[in-house]
Amino acid sequence: MTTLPPGPPPQGPGPQPWQQVGPRPPKRWPMFASFVIALAAVGLAIGCWFRPSPATQEPSKPTYTDQQVADAKAKMCAAFGKVDHALDVADARRGGNDPTAVLAAATSERLALDAGSRYLVAKLAAEPATPPDLATAIRNQADSYQESLIDYLDGLTNSDSEMQPTLKAADDATLAIRRLCQ
Fold it and tell me: 53 in a domain, yes or no?
């Protein structure tokens, strides 16, 4: 037996084994598609940047009938009357000589200030037809109640000089509300 080298492989489709097949060239269409999409996005962004913004309209101020204003004024004056009476009741409790009773009376007065200020602000929010001058006076009163409360919690008394501007603001607001509620 003789060994002969194998003969040439059969001819068929495709490259011959002795031919080197290089890598296929990359497809370029995805790159161009990405470029076109990016270009479109940049163009859209520039267009949106220079597009005029829609005209903003200021919301119109609500208008109220005379009856709505009168009803709101009556409700706010009644609310102030309730708070003023609650403060008078709380202030009337002194506690005598018992330190626990004195502390309880002071706590009651502070609670009346806090609840009264919150009540006025809540009522004012519920009555948007309140005349502006009355609304301002009630806000000032609620603010002075809160300021007084913080001063009392800080250990100040009505005779302290730091308390005088707050007490004057409360008195001024009370006089303004009483004048407007007549």
Answer: no
List of residues 6+ apart from 102 with CB closer than 8 A: 94, 95, 96
Answer whether residue 30 is part of any domain.
no
Its domain, for residue 131, covers: 66-180
Instruction: Output 15 or 103, whichever has higher pLDDT.
Output: 103
59 contacts 125 by C-beta, under 8 angstroms: no
Tell me whether residue 176 is in a domain.
yes
Please write the tens of the pLDDT for every residue from 34-88.
888 999 999 888 888 888 777 777 777 888 999 999 999 999 999 999 999 998 8
Q: Is the per-residue pLDDT at 1 higher than 60?
A: no
Q: Domains in the chain: how many in total? A: 1
Say if 74 falls within a structural domain: yes
